[in-house]
Amino acid sequence: MSHVDSFIKELLSSDAMKEYNRARVYLDENYKSQEHFTALGSCYFLHEALKNIQQFDFKAKKFKKVMGKEIYSDTLESTAMLEKAKFPQEYFPECKWSRKGFIRTRWALGECTFDLVNIHLFHDASNLVAWEKSPSVYSGTRQKALGYVLDRITDQRYEKVPYFIFGDFNFRLDSRQVVETLCSSATMQTVRAADTNEVDKLIFRETDNDRKVVLHLEKKLFSYINQDVFRENNGTQLLEYDKELSVFKDRLNELEIAFPPSYPYSEDCSQGKEYMNTRCPAWCDRILMSSSAKDLVLKPENEDKTVIYNNIGPNVCMGDHKPVFLSFRLTTGAGKRCQRSEKILREATLQDHTSNGSNAKPNELFQPCR
Fold first, then answer.
1. Per-residue confidence (pLDDT) for residue 306, from 0 to 100
2. pLDDT at 209
3. What per-residue string of b and e applies to 254-267 under the rule 16 or more CB within 10 Å gives b?
4. Radius of gyration over alpha carbons of the chain, in Å?
5. Is 22 left (phi over 0), alpha (psi -120 to 50) or beta?
6. For the chain, does the N or the C end have fewer beta carbons within 10 angstroms?
7. What is the distance between the alpha carbons of residues 92 and 140, in angstroms, rounded to a whole number?
8. Which residues are 218's β-sheet partners?
9. What was the pLDDT predicted at 98?
10. Are 169 and 284 in contact (CB under 8 A)?
11. What GO terms describe the biological role, i.e. biological process, of this protein (predicted)?
């Protein structure tokens, strides 16, 4: 953890950050607490040009003006300016000590209020298990955890506002279907462990061409003969197998993906574009948003280039994950647009309930923008 602390201090004092005169850094570093530790970190840097910024106090239930630079670590559970939770152990019983969870903060920029939620969902523990059925058991676990977060950030404790959810969702391609596509003309050889008779390896070979191995699959091995399929045209021909978000199509939105799968990249500094042969490459790292948040992001028709959803360091080693970013301009009056949408929906709902003879109170009929 000392390396993290040193990095943050150096970052805050760097020349590149001189114009960012306010900062809030939240680092979950209390690794001794198995009950609460998530290893998540959220850093927020505010430019000097932004004059009216407030952050929400979840305990006092009111906004406070953001001033100066502050770093919080160790026990984030007592920090009133965020909401943090670790997923219940029963969500992923295979892992004795999971670090998966989320951190939520709420911000007000002038008339616009929104939540920023940093999330880390469960991974695929075994390529072989992921291949067994479609959709995989791991997909179901992630679905349950993400649903848990969405329910938490839209419950009745606080006013509902637009929200952005970002981080390592660990979304994977449908392994069964991807393998069937990549190895459509290959034959499969099953290798079992001598002591347990459980499947240990799956080897897919071409039917001719000297029976060349097309794909070698093990618990932590995904060695495909042609990695270019994941890079050509940003791998978008495989997006049809990226299905995990479809379950939440009524609650979450995403801009068009125009970058290659973000994981698992080689950690060799000389191989910035190569994938490791550990997992099937997938778009694990995403930035998602509510419908009302998408309304904030949508650019005016005369500013076509103000919204960018892409990765960082496409040709440079960035670790096993390529960071993904969303850049957009929040135009003046964006918050009012959301308020107008809320007013229109409220009036429409009231008219509908009045025509049906409903006796419900107005605040029971409508929840603010989501």
1. 82
2. 77
3. bbebebbbbbbbbe
4. 23
5. beta
6. N
7. 11
8. 221
9. 74
10. yes
11. phosphatidylinositol dephosphorylation
CA angle 40, 306, 298 (to 5 degrees): 80
Q: Give the largest CA-CA distance in the chain.
A: 76
What's the pTM? 0.88
User: Is 285 in contact with 324 (CB distance < 8 Å)?
Assistant: yes
Torsion of CA 179, 183, 187, 188, to 10 degrees: -20
**Alpha carbon distances (Å) from 90 to 77, 94, 97, 125, 145:** 21, 9, 11, 15, 11
Residues in the chain: 370
- Residue with the two structure tokens 């839209």: 154
Q: What are the angstrom distances between the C-alpha of 92 and each of 17, 98, 137, 142, 237?
A: 39, 8, 11, 9, 31
Q: What burial class does residue 340 get, using C-beta atoms within 10 Å of its C-beta: 0-12 exposed, 13-18 middle, 19+ buried?
A: exposed
The lowest-confidence range among 107-111, 113-117, 263-267 is: 107-111
